[in-house]
Recover the amino acids of this structure.
């Protein structure tokens, strides 16, 4: 049986997923924070906060986990986060395509 256009598109989406590399869910933010020393400029009015500090956070089993990252760690983490967003978007496309194709297949089958 010849591959349909939908079959070829689905195969392309699978290759996209396979080629992604590592993924990491969550978010990455840059924060500026005070150190707490009374004589530091970060305690002035207005404060001159320290930073930026990169922080990754994600919910795991209902609790938010946050980790401070070095600049080098933040660079690679951004790539993993981008891969995760791409993975989720590709999976959504696969779901939409699968729903259309399975509906089409079920319509072509005779009723019991």
């Amino acid at each position: 049986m010849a591959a349909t256009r939908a079959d070829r598109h689905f195969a392309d989406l699978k290759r996209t997923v396979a080629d992604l590399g590592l993924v990491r869910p969550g978010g990455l933010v840059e924060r500026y924070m005070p150190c707490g020393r009374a004589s530091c400029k970060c305690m002035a009015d207005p404060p001159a906060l320290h930073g930026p500090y990169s922080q990754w956070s994600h919910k795991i089993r209902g609790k938010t986990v946050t980790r401070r990252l070095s600049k080098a760690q933040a660079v690679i983490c951004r790539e993993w986060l981008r891969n995760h967003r791409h993975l989720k978007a590709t999976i959504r496309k696969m779901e939409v395509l699968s729903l259309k194709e399975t509906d089409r297949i079920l319509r072509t089958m005779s009723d019991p």
